[in-house]
Write a structure and sequence with these properties.
The chain is mostly helical. Helices cover 66% and strands 6% of the residues. The protein has a two-stranded antiparallel sheet with strand order 1-2.
Length: 276
């Protein structure tokens, strides 16, 4: 019987030790979790994400009932320029923390004074707008307005000056010539590019004959000569129109130009038409 009682006592002691060890382990895991979340809140407050940081601190306050998290909320608001919210949290911390030393209480009051100073400076420097303008000062004898003097009326200007606003003769034709010559230059440049492509394909066909490459080479050559013909004709037509415009031909109205390419089996060129 004594052996049984001894075994029961030993098992009870071991169970109590195991329960105490489990409780200590659970407490340590909670402490580690709180410390980790405190680091996340501190980082959020330091990176201007104060809403997340204050929210994490609020959860920790509910779980631990430790007023130090109220103090940390105030510091988070203060670091992010939310001075009114920071003052409110610092005052709440002074009310909840009953065992603060004089030095700690003075530190919190210093935070509150700093926030109030920033708010007062912002209020002084902010522009004050008023919807009503101040009344004008009373007029003295020296500042009284002088009687109005009638302004002389200028004689009407003859409408002959309107002729000077007209564009010089031949301006429309010169503009059309420049546009046409520009189109021709672009066409010549396109012909050069196509000719270079044809030359590259010609070298490849000579080395490795291919019917598809031979067909593409012929197409590039044809398009290149077509572009040359269109470009040359457009440049010649543009130069002709510009020369006629220099001589005063054409009207002053805005030109209307139409350019149409002509490609046949015997000739290549452009048809330029319109009014000038």
């Amino acid at each position: 019987m004594r052996i049984v009682r001894f075994l029961i006592l030993a098992l009870s002691i071991k169970a109590a030790d195991a329960w105490a060890a489990g409780k200590a382990t659970g407490s340590q895991s909670k402490e580690a979790d709180w410390r980790a979340r405190e680091k996340v809140a501190k980082k959020a407050c330091a990176t201007e994400n104060y809403r997340e940081g204050v929210g994490i601190l609020a959860d920790l306050l509910i779980e631990t009932n430790d007023p130090v998290y109220i103090h940390n909320q105030g510091r988070c608001y203060q670091q992010n320029g939310r001075y009114e919210a920071a003052i409110e949290r610092f005052r709440e911390y002074l009310r909840k923390a009953n065992q603060l030393s004089d030095a700690e209480r003075a530190s919190i009051e210093g935070y509150i004074a700093d926030c109030q100073q920033v708010l007062s400076q912002s209020a002084r420097t902010s522009p004050v707008t008023s919807s009503q303008e101040p009344p004008p000062p009373p007029l003295s004898a020296s500042t009284a307005p002088l009687p109005a003097v009638p302004t002389p009326v200028a004689p009407p200007v003859a409408e002959a000056t309107s002729a000077t606003t007209q564009s010089p003769p031949g301006a429309g034709l010169r503009t059309a010539g420049i546009v046409t010559a520009g189109v021709g230059t672009a066409s010549v440049v396109l012909g050069l590019v196509l000719n270079l492509q044809a030359n590259n394909l010609a070298s490849e066909v000579n080395q490795h004959y291919s019917r598809s490459k031979e067909s593409t080479h012929s197409s590039y050559q044809t398009y290149a000569w077509v572009s040359y013909g269109i470009g040359a004709a457009a440049i010649l037509a543009g130069a002709t129109m510009y020369a006629i415009g220099l001589g005063g031909g054409g009207s002053s109205s805005r030109p209307e130009v139409t350019i149409s390419p002509i490609v046949t089996s015997r000739a290549t060129g452009v048809l330029v038409g319109g009014s000038f």
